[in-house]
Specification:
The protein is α+β, with helices and mostly antiparallel strands. It is built from 21 helices and 22 strands. Strands 1, 2, 6, 7, 8, 9 and 20 form a seven-stranded mixed beta sheet that branches. It has a six-stranded antiparallel beta sheet with strand order 14-15-16-17-13-18, with no helix packed on it. A four-stranded antiparallel beta sheet has the order 11-10-19-12.
Length: 633
């Protein structure tokens, strides 16, 4: 028998990266919120690599922070190494990647959750959804506790009917040997939600003292510490001292590694048929790499510290589900790891996920009012993708509970908008990973300007603090002030020192007076180059100087992209009725009718991105909308 255990506005099921963001967003927006977790000791667990960020993923973390989320702040508090990637390329693809102390990350997030007003945290296993008349009313746990709510957010990650696989050994479990959620899948299916089956994996962990680092290549952190958050927090590990960073190490597999894996492919569950779920193409196992790239004699592996005070190291690039004895042999075939001791074996994990075409752009299940889902249950991979979805689902659950319109980011607003639109509109055949190439407007969706793009939006929905808003306003003021100063600061041709400097930089000499602003447009000159010759200058923060330089240097390209965005937004404004019966529209192809009916796009722009919807179908829709506008039947 069940019993009433509590009444809430929003319930979040699962306390991974998606669940933490969803619960915090809802509570911070004033809703009485409950966060339910299988194990309070594993809140915000990093079951895979101990890092946050990287190409496109770092953009997501910056955007989460700009909107008032927690992942960026928590990572900054617990980082032990910081690196900005792709600095040899343009600013659109610069990407911050941070190594975190895993245990510290979890403890820090737990403190935030426990101290958040409007938020309760309880340990429980949710077995059943309470749904009446296609509307969510709450959840029931394995012990019979019934929690009522106006909205529920499911963020169960890889735990739904989780199955861990090592060689021929399989066990019902979640990541890192945690309990699996076995009952909730049935409840979702009973309520008409279509589920699929995906697979992911993780590499072995090794003991640091058993590694010969002389045979590996050191990968130190940056000389200057960068941050994910636009707010500054104290980090007890680095204490603003870049020299305190813990290095990573680069190594390579060998021909011996390749031979070992090929000889044991028949023992790999990936090839023996034990694994049924589809795995991530962009994060393949070492077995997959050896088979798919058989001509390649070596593959990179990275040894990453799991934390500040632990000997455990993670081996990125060596995800595997081979039997343990083979894993040890593979490890010892890598130079530097000849005598390595394996602490934890790698494994594959299969799990149920919700096919995301069943969701709206607010991440609400279309057929069940008030039910939202976010994270790996939606078919994505990665902490950052999960946290981004959790933030959006939490925001929209709170807005729904308050009777307000949903908060939706478009593809031109943010990488988060690209992520959600891809999932809902395009569908997925494998675990989805965010890539910079997925964003059409990446020149304006840079990680450096996430606050300029999104903080005002976060303020409007009540998620951005006064402190964060004041920091943004000050930054905007300083950017414009410095651009004006550069425009009014003129260098004369008679300045021989500057003319010599231009010659050193292979930049054409001045024929007439030129402002610093115009000089900054030259690709061979940097902001720091120019301020040296125009002292005194404003003592402005580095992030302001970065914005000034990017906005000035790329002004023409940015204007072109903004024009593209204007055309894109025109199509996004052509709304499609929620109750439109596509089967009755004459002229639509059969596949077009099926795909449009399944996705139910909000507007013409979203309809154009649905696989199977042809240009001819779009023309029919445009004619239909015009006839509706004119009142023609």
């Amino acid at each position: 028998m069940d019993y009433l255990a509590g009444n809430y506005q929003v319930i979040v099921v699962g306390s991974g990266h998606a669940g933490c963001e969803a619960a915090l967003a809802s509570a911070r927006m004033g809703c009485k919120t409950l966060l339910l977790t299988l194990n309070m000791d594993n809140l915000a667990l990093m079951p895979c690599n101990p890092s946050v960020g990287g190409p496109a993923k770092g953009h997501l973390v910056k955007e989460i922070d700009a909107l008032g989320g927690e992942m960026g702040l928590n990572t900054d508090k617990t980082s032990i190494q910081v690196r900005t990637l792709n600095l040899g390329k343009g600013p659109a693809v610069h990407a911050l990647r941070v190594q975190s102390d895993k245990r510290a990350y979890m403890n820090s997030m737990l403190r935030v959750i426990e101290n958040q007003i409007n938020l309760d945290l309880k340990q429980a296993t949710v077995e059943k959804l309470i749904v009446n008349n296609n509307k969510i009313e709450g959840v029931i746990t394995s012990t019979g506790a019934r929690f009522n709510a106006q909205c529920v957010v499911i963020t169960t990650g890889t735990y739904l009917k989780g199955r861990v696989i090592i060689g021929s050994n399989t066990v019902t479990a979640g990541p890192n040997g945690q309990l699996a959620a076995t009952g909730l899948s049935g409840s979702l299916a009973e309520n008409g939600i279509e589920l699929g089956r995906f697979k992911t994996g993780t590499p072995p962990r090794i003991h640091r003292d058993s590694v010969n680092f002389d045979k590996l290549v050191i990968q130190p952190g940056d000389q200057q510490l960068s941050r994910f958050s636009f707010l500054k927090v104290f980090n007890p590990f680095l204490m603003d001292d870049a020299s305190r960073q813990v290095p990573c190490w680069l190594g390579y597999t060998t021909k011996e590694t390749q031979a070992l894996i090929q000889e044991n492919l028949h023992r790999s569950p990936l090839y023996s048929g034990i694994i049924e779920g589809v795995g991530p193409r962009y994060c393949p196992s070492i077995e997959d790499k050896i088979v798919r790239f058989s001509a390649k004699e070596s593959h990179q592996v990275f040894l990453e510290p799991e934390g500040w005070n632990t000997k455990e190291m993670y081996i990125a690039g060596l995800s595997t589900s081979l039997p343990e004895d083979v894993q040890v042999a593979v490890l010892r075939s890598i130079p530097g790891l000849e005598k390595v001791e394996m602490i934890r074996s790698g494994y594959a994990i299969e799990y149920d996920y919700i096919k995301p075409y069943q969701l709206s752009l607010s991440l609400e299940v279309k057929e069940i009012s008030g039910l939202f889902s976010a994270g790996q249950i939606n078919g994505t991979s990665g902490y950052e993708e999960a946290a981004a979805q959790g933030l959006i689902a939490g925001i929209n659950a709170a807005l729904k509970a308050r009777g307000q319109e949903p908060f939706i980011l478009s593809r031109s607003d943010a990488y988060i908008g690209v992520l959600v639109d891809d999932l809902v509109t395009k569908g997925i055949a494998e675990p989805y990973r965010m890539l910079t190439s997925r964003a059409e407007y990446r020149l304006v969706l840079r990680q450096d300007n996430a606050d300029l793009r999104l903080t005002a939006k976060g303020r409007e929905i009540g998620l951005v603090s006064d402190e964060r808003h004041m920091i943004l306003e000050q930054k905007l003021f300083l950017i414009e002030k410095e651009k004006k100063r550069l425009d009014e600061s003129v260098i004369l041709p008679s300045n021989n020192v500057f003319q010599s400097f231009l010659k050193e930089k292979n930049s054409s000499e001045l024929r007439s007076a030129m402002s610093l602003l115009d000089l900054l447009r030259r690709p061979e000159l940097s902001y720091q180059d120019l301020v040296r010759f125009n002292l005194p200058h404003l003592d402005i923060p580095l992030d302001v100087a970065e914005q000034v330089e990017i906005q000035v240097k790329y002004e023409g390209y940015i204007e072109k992209q903004n024009a593209q965005i204007a055309r894109f937004e025109k199509a996004e404004k052509r709304r499609l009725p929620d109750d439109l019966d596509y089967s009755l529209i004459t002229g639509l192809s059969t596949e077009g009718k099926q795909r449009l009916s399944a996705v139910r796009p909000m507007n013409l722009g979203q309809a154009s991105r649905i696989s199977g919807v042809t240009p001819a179908d779009l023309s029919v829709l445009m004619v239909y909308l015009e006839q509706k506008r004119r009142g023609v039947q």
